[in-house]
Amino acid sequence: MNIVFASAEVAPYSKAGGLADVAGSLPQALAPYVNSVQVLTPLYGQIDQKKYDIHATTSSGEVLLGDDVIPYSLYQATAADQSTQIGFIRCDRFFGRDGIYTESDGEGFADNNLRYFFFQLVVLDLISTGSIPADILHCNDHHTGLLPLMMKTMQLKVKSIFTIHNFLYHGHFSAEEIALLPGSTKPLLTITQWDNYSALLEGIDHSDIVTTVSPGYALELLAGLNVDQHSLTRIQAVKPNFSGIVNGIDTEYWSPERDQYTPFHFSIDDLDGKRKNKAALLTKAGLSPDMDAPLFGSISRLVENKGFPFINKLLDEFVDLGAKFIFLGSGSPEISDQLRKAGKRHPQHIAFDDGFNEPLAHLIEAGSDMFLMPSRFEPCGLNQLYSLRYGTIPIVHRTGGLGDTVDPWTPDSGTGFVFEPYDINELRKTMNLALKIYYSGSDWAALMQRAMSMDFSWDQSAKQYFRLYNL
Ligand code: ADP
């Protein structure tokens, strides 16, 4: 069985969010079960080709986008563990610039629809010409949502699977833009209630199998939570082929024992390094070196649904209780402004790093006591999984993958703190409970032990994907 895995982002080469983490680790976990796994992704200008030994291949071609014949060439690298090949599609007109989806000011590129139409046409070209052997095409999110439909119209004997990493982003396109796609796709496209088209919903309609990234999120989508009526009808139409598989994590890259970015290593049996990382993190963030103060970490895209409206309202009162906070994130100027102002009000207690910073993300996981992740909804969430592994106790809303992966604390069970319903007072109560247990000492130590002994490696989930490929 030959798998082609198409994704707009792949860690460590290009990353905006959790999609990259999955695309960078699931294919490797699948490799032992199949003949070959080939990942395909754009060659963005910001990717460090030297660092990852990304080199040109002899494969190249051209695709028709509307009336434009646009050439591409295929670059290739081997994954660090040698298990998979990563193919990078080079076309400087669309990808040879900094930024994956957005300008440096956070504004989406005006030609994003064209860029991902093009990407999909190239994937299709590589598969249909036999340049890349494919029995299964695994598509991810709206950037690849039109591929199952395009394959159908070409009657390719390739099975398609479409994974929804976040239902919020549809990749809407207009009736005029359809002219850029192969003519045969047009009669099969479905107009939405907004008078446009949704690449995400097309992926759901036309792929052989649809998955999302946790069983809890699958149930929420099928129940219509945060889903409009039009989309719900289309999701429910594929219900028999729709399931949720929880994401795993790359346990080598996110390992407290071996983390390349943290100054001190530690394990469930020896937590000394965790305290040292906390001291290093406090110093790096410019916070007072009060080692006993509970330290909340947060690494997140700055968007409303990650819970920032609640967090912003609670910061002052928790600082008054002696807590410290470290935020790393980029996105909404309004949220970054609020966090910056909070940091100015409490320079010894609140630090905010505005940007994308991989090394700092690892240090926050390793050095914080708790991880704040009160997302309104969360398809799977990865940071709570990294947090559990690093003994950094997650505080989460019971939603989607957060509900599936964090067990609520009780005196002798549980791995984190879970609140519901989605209400600021519930979060306040839960943070207060977390502080109480933190100060209790022995209960906290037991909680850390339970959290760190959880297994979120890809193995189980990769097997579930493999079963679906075989259906
Ligand atoms: P989402 O995909 O909705 O952004 P996830 O929790 O699934 O949320 O995944 C987010 C991933 O992106 C995690 O690996 C997280 O550590 C990473 N991340 C998010 N923001 C930043 C940032 N500013 N700097 C470094 N890593 C970040």
Task: Please characterize this protein's 3D structure.
- The chain is of the alpha/beta class.
- Strands 3-4-5-2-1-6-7-10-11 form a 9-stranded mixed beta sheet, sandwiched between helices. Strands 14-13-12-15-16-17 form a 6-stranded parallel beta sheet, sandwiched between helices.
- Helix 9 (308-320) runs parallel beside helix 10.
- The mean pLDDT is 97.
- The chain has 2 domains: 2-248 and 459-469, 3-Layer(aba) Sandwich (Rossmann fold); 272-455, Rossmann fold (3-Layer(aba) Sandwich).
- The radius of gyration is 22 Å and the shape is globular.
- The longest helix has 17 residues, at 112-128.
- It contains 16 helices and 17 strands.
- The structure holds adenosine-5'-diphosphate (ADP).
- Residues 17-18, 21, 166, 299-301, 328-330, 356-358, 361, 380-383 line the site of adenosine-5'-diphosphate (ADP).
Quick overview:
The chain has 471 residues and is an alpha/beta fold. The protein has two domains: 2-248 and 459-469, Glycogen Phosphorylase B (Rossmann fold, 3-Layer(aba) Sandwich); 272-455, Rossmann fold, CATH 3.40.50.2000. It has 16 helices and 17 strands.
